[in-house]
């Protein structure tokens, strides 16, 4: 119950609280979040994030030039026996002669058009988007004063982050930044004197000298990142916050190798800046990297098998095997990607899809085709996704979805007997992933009147989004039986709008 502030209760307010009420908003907002987990875990997920549901980002950098194996090329090219190492020696020569830094002049991005990219992402139905701001390779994609190894100073000679932030916001999308640069500690063979990674002249790119053990010791690297490394890590994040005002910051895994005090200070700074901008902001984190509630939990290449009582995120790539463009891509189908989005949304999550531009700055035709197909579906059925909330149950059907990171490859496509639910006030949306082939009736078993999810007489009407046909239906103890129109619309999935009394 809301407690209204009367004159009497105001006069009873302590002096400190009264002073706080009289303090200008800008000054108060600086103390809205203290650099402590007790304070930061009280931070709520933004309302816009709860409504947006679907975002897109992209891995793009010097690793896009060889376009081989995956985005770990920058590391694996130095490791004997790795596929990238074998390929690198065949095509470019030994790493002792041609290092990762030598790809930077080849990363020219001559066809990069941020306005066209933003237009495509809007047409795909994304509501938030942005670039990988810095991957583990140490190359910053913005005009950085902290790191001279950046896209504005070399390679494309363009401020990719800045240009995309403006273009995306012009299209009405929220701008996000993603950081992976904590991986730089131990990423390269910085103590191998036979390669350029050990040359102090290039330490801004390859990182300070560190044995390979920090990389192998995932949770507790030995030695831990040096103070100088952590200071640079922090300075990069703060620079992007101050210059580009992202609505969301995605942090890749291994964030827990950074000192807790520093993490709390960076996150509280960002949240307090959001208060100054009058904008709801948040960070994402992987399990065990931050205390629960300090940001939005991200499940990389995975999902949940249940309806969560908290907001969460899945980030997954359009390619089964790589997060960046590669020569022999293995793209997921539009049906698969859309099914993942619907399943995630039904369980109180949001979906961040990674796409793969080429080094020149274009998206491969299969990527564009899939994005436009998803966007076309959302243009018709988006009311069943955007701004919805979970229902009493997430859905039903025989297909098993397992919880956890990196489980996506083990999850089958959702099929004809699977349904998912979303809701908005007195409207329940039921999304079927296919329609029956040999009958005109679709039976939605989880909506039976026997289990008390929907009582008899509670359904007022049923329509199929994208179809003007009048549907007949029957609600009983076996489920909701819908008689489908003779002319069934072709679609990646079918969203039924159920109005409730």
The CATH architecture term of the largest domain is: Alpha-Beta Barrel
The residue-averaged pLDDT reads 92
What is the β-strand count?
A: 16
Structural class: alpha/beta
Task: Note the gap between the termini.
Answer: 27 Å
Notable traits:
disordered N terminus, TIM Barrel, alpha/beta, single chain, Immunoglobulin-like, 8-stranded parallel barrel, 15 helices, 27% helix, 5-stranded antiparallel β-sheet
Structure description:
It is a single chain. The chain is of the alpha/beta class and 501 residues long. It has two domains: 37-300, Glycosidases (TIM Barrel), CATH 3.20.20; 395-500, Sandwich (Immunoglobulin-like), CATH 2.60.40. 27% of the residues lie in helices and 17% in strands. It has helices at 7-12, 15-22, 25-29, 37-40, 47-52, 73-76, 83-91, 114-123, 160-170, 203-206, 213-216, 227-244, 260-277, 334-346, 365-381, and strands at residues 54-58, 128-134, 174-179, 248-251, 282-285, 296-300, 312-317, 349-355, 395-396, 419-424, 427-432, 441-444, 459-464, 472-476, 479-483, 494-500. The strands form three sheets. An eight-stranded parallel barrel has the order 1-2-3-4-5-6-7-8. Strands 9-10-11-16-13 form a five-stranded antiparallel sheet, covered by helices on one side. Strands 12-15-14 form a three-stranded antiparallel sheet, with no helix packed on it. Strand 10 and strand 11 form a beta hairpin. It is globular. Residues 1-29 have low confidence and may be disordered.
């Amino acid at each position: 119950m809301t407690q209204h502030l009367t004159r009497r209760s105001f006069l009873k307010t302590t002096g400190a609280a009264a002073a706080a009420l009289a303090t200008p908003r800008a000054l108060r907002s600086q103390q809205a979040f203290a650099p402590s987990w007790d304070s930061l875990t009280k931070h709520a997920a933004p309302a816009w994030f709860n409504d947006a549901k679907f975002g897109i980002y992209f891995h793009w950098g010097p690793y896009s030039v060889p376009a081989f194996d995956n985005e770990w090329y920058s590391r694996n090219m130095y490791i004997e026996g790795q596929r990238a190492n074998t390929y690198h020696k065949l095509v470019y020569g030994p790493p002792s002669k041609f290092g990762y830094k030598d790809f930077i002049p080849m990363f020219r991005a001559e066809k990069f058009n941020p306005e066209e990219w933003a237009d495509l992402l809007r047409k795909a139905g994304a509501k938030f988007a942005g670039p990988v701001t810095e991957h583990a390779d140490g190359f910053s994609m913005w005009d950085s004063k902290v790191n001279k190894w950046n896209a504005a100073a070399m390679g494309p000679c363009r401020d990719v982050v800045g240009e995309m932030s403006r273009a995306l916001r012009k299209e009405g999308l929220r701008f996000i930044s993603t950081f992976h640069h904590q991986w730089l500690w131990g990423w390269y063979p910085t103590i191998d004197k036979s390669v350029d990674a050990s040359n102090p002249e290039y330490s801004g790119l390859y990182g300070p000298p560190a044995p390979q053990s920090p990389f192998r010791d995932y949770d507790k690297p030995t030695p831990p990142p040096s103070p100088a490394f952590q200071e640079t890590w922090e300075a990069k994040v703060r620079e992007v916050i101050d210059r580009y005002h992202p609505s969301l910051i995605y942090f890749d895994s291994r964030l827990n190798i950074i000192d807790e005090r520093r993490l709390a200070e960076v996150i509280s700074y960002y949240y307090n800046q959001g208060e100054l901008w009058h904008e709801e902001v948040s960070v994402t984190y992987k399990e065990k990297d931050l205390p629960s509630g300090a940001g939005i939990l991200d499940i990389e290449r995975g999902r949940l098998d249940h309806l969560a009582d908290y907001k969460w995120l899945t980030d997954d790539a359009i390619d089964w095997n790589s997060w960046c463009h590669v020569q022999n891509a293995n793209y997921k189908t539009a049906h698969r990607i859309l099914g993942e989005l619907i399943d995630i949304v039904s369980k109180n999550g949001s979906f961040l899809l990674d796409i793969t531009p080429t080094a020149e700055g274009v998206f491969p035709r299969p990527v564009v085709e899939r994005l436009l197909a998803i966007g076309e579906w959302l243009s018709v059925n988006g009311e069943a996704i955007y701004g919805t909330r979970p229902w009493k149950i997430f859905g039903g059907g025989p297909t098993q979805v397992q919880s956890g990171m990196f489980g996506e490859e083990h999850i089958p496509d959702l099929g004809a007997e699977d349904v998912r639910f979303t809701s908005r006030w007195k409207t329940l949306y039921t999304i079927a992933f296919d329609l029956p082939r040999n009958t005109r009736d679709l039976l939605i078993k989880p909506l039976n009147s026997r289990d008390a999810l929907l009582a008899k007489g509670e359904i007022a009407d049923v329509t199929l989004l994208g179809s003007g046909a009048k549907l007949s239906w029957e609600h009983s103890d076996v489920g909701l039986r819908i008689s489908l129109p003779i002319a069934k619309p072709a679609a990646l999935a079918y969203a039924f709008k159920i109005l409730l009394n």
